[in-house]
Amino acid sequence: MTRSPYPVPPRGVLLVHGAWHTGHAWDGVAAGLRARGVTVAVAELHRGSLAADKAAAETALDQLSGGGPAVACGHSYGGAVITGLPPHKVGHLVYLAAMMPDRGETALGLLAGAPPTDLRSSMIAGPAGTTTIDPEAAGRLFHAQLDTGERARYTARLVPQTMAPGHQPTTDAAWHHRPSTYVVCTEDRVVHPDLQRRFATRATRAVTWHSDHGAFASHEDETIDLLHSLATASHLAPAR
Predict the structure, then answer these.
(1) Is 37 exposed, middle or buried (0-12, 13-18, 19+ CB in 10 A)?
(2) Among 146, 149, 117, which Cα is nearest to 133's?
(3) By C-alpha distance, which of 220, 226, 231 is closest to 207?
(4) Are strands 13-16 and 40-43 parallel, antiparallel or unpaired?
(5) Helix, strand, or coil (residue 81)
(6) Which of 75, 131, 150, 179 has the most crowded Cβ, counting Cβ within 10 A?
(7) pLDDT tens for residues 73-94?
């Protein structure tokens, strides 16, 4: 019988994508974690409201098996989603260039209060309160550190985004109850690094990567390493 390399089964990892993206953004990270024996669930958002997106993430979370409460990682808007997860179901929260709202705060309100980035000028209004990202700008906006071919592969999967969830306030903040890691991406053109540094003061710990917004792609190995280390930790530090 082959003995597991871990004293207990790894915790599962939940991956939550950001605005205009789909779960395919996590394909590389998910494959890397699974290759290391970690169970992964990928939430699919775009459900029309923040509450519905949180419900979709919780449904994906409930599909995980592992050695304890899961590690939940949110990218960009996905940070607002993981913030609303039930704390007893989460062992650690990871915010990857992500929104990290407190109770009563909204994602778009937090962006509006930060220094401007290239995001607003790259958005194109669509029908029924949706927006898309200008195809000519999308690669530089999200994936400036990838080569042209890789940029095209990721941006081809962008979808329209309903803006309503960005205006809806957070009703509870799991990071008050569970430990968290914030990854500050210093070359981000979507969520200003100054805003990320503000969020990082809310987290239990912070790390800094010289990454563009799409760190799951440009820093795929680092993302896998971080999530794997949390999933296989013998214990997780308590929240501050």
Answers:
(1) middle
(2) 117
(3) 226
(4) parallel
(5) helix
(6) 75
(7) 999 999 999 999 999 999 999 9
pLDDT at 207 over 50: yes
The dihedral through the CA atoms of 84, 14, 114, 176 has a sign that is positive
Tokens of 160: 């329209």
CA-nearest of 205, 210, 180, 176 to 193 is 210
Residue 5 has pLDDT above 70, yes or no: no
Please give the Cα distance from 134 to 150 (Å, whole number). Answer: 17
Give this prediction's pTM: 0.94
Residues in the chain: 240
Q: Which of 83, 68, 63 is nearest to 230 (CA)?
A: 68
pLDDT at residue 65 in the model: 79
Six-digit token pair at 207? 């790390």
Identify the pLDDT of residue 213: 98
Give the 3-state secondary structure of residue 45: coil
User: How confident is residue 2, by pLDDT bands cut at 50, 70 and 90?
Assistant: very low
CA distance 99 to 106: 9
Give the CA dihedral 79, 112, 48, 46, nearest 10 degrees. Answer: -50
pLDDT in tens, 97-154: 999 999 999 999 999 999 999 999 999 999 999 999 999 999 999 999 999 999 999 9
Residues in Cβ contact with 105 at an 8 Å cutoff, skipping those fewer than 6 apart: 169, 170
